[in-house]
Amino acid sequence: MRTRNNPTISVALKAAALALLAANAAVACAETPAPESVLLANGHAIEWVRPRLLEVDAARHRTTVLSVPAALRRALADASSVAFPSDRSKRIDGNDYVLVVVNRSSSSRPTGYCGAGEEGALYVLELRGTRAVPRFSLPVQSCLDTVSLETDGGTQSPYRAIAWRDAPAGIDIRWEYLAHGGATHRVYRFVNGTFAEAEVPE
């Protein structure tokens, strides 16, 4: 006698398998998430609380709004999300430098092309008291232009593809795909108060 497959059980098994795959993917991505704040040399931390960047002094239970230029203030106000590639600032010539990626929605139409995508720009901010001065900026991800940061096969946050370099000080950025270029690795070194592209070390 032939037995018939129960369609209800089959659908339930497929749903369970998909749920398991999704859970495994979520766990894999959660292994190396992007930091939620940046620790400064003085023990304070930088956090994003929409729509501002705050310096948090946990010991004194005090927060201070960082003063930023008008263009960056507008970008933060319009941001769909903000991410910190590194959980620590970089001390260069006695000043703290912080890496911040500001994302905005790729499209004003949620159901249109790239409706759920983001356009991300990296800012390197030099902290001077309560002022954050942009010393370098660079588009690092884009749904519209097909630019994506490296995710190590989907096991880490893409923002981990942006990292500080030592001796000499600089920034390492790895893209999974850079428009018309495929996988790309670039280095930006600190030169005369800003960051300039340099040859990638062998």
Rg of Cα set: 21 Å
Poorly predicted regions are 11-30
Mean pLDDT: 86
Strand runs, count: 14
Helix % is: 10-25%
Shape: globular
Largest sheet: 5 strands, antiparallel
Euclidean distance between termini CA atoms:
68 Å
Secondary structure class reads: alpha+beta
Q: What would your notes on this structure say?
A:
The N and C termini lie far apart (68 Å). Strands 5, 6, 7, 8 and 9 form a 5-stranded antiparallel sheet that branches. With 202 residues, this protein is α+β, with helices and mostly antiparallel strands.
Write out key terms for the chains shown:
single chain; 202 residues; alpha+beta; 5-stranded antiparallel sheet; 16% helix; globular; Lipoprotein; signal
How are the elements arranged and paired?
Layout: H1 7-30, E1 38-39, E2 45-49, E3 52-57, E4 62-65, H2 70-78, E5 81-83, E6 90-92, E7 95-105, E8 118-128, E9 131-142, E10 148-149, E11 162-165, E12 170-178, E13 182-191, E14 194-198
Protein name: Lipoprotein
Keywords: Signal
Signal peptide: 1-30
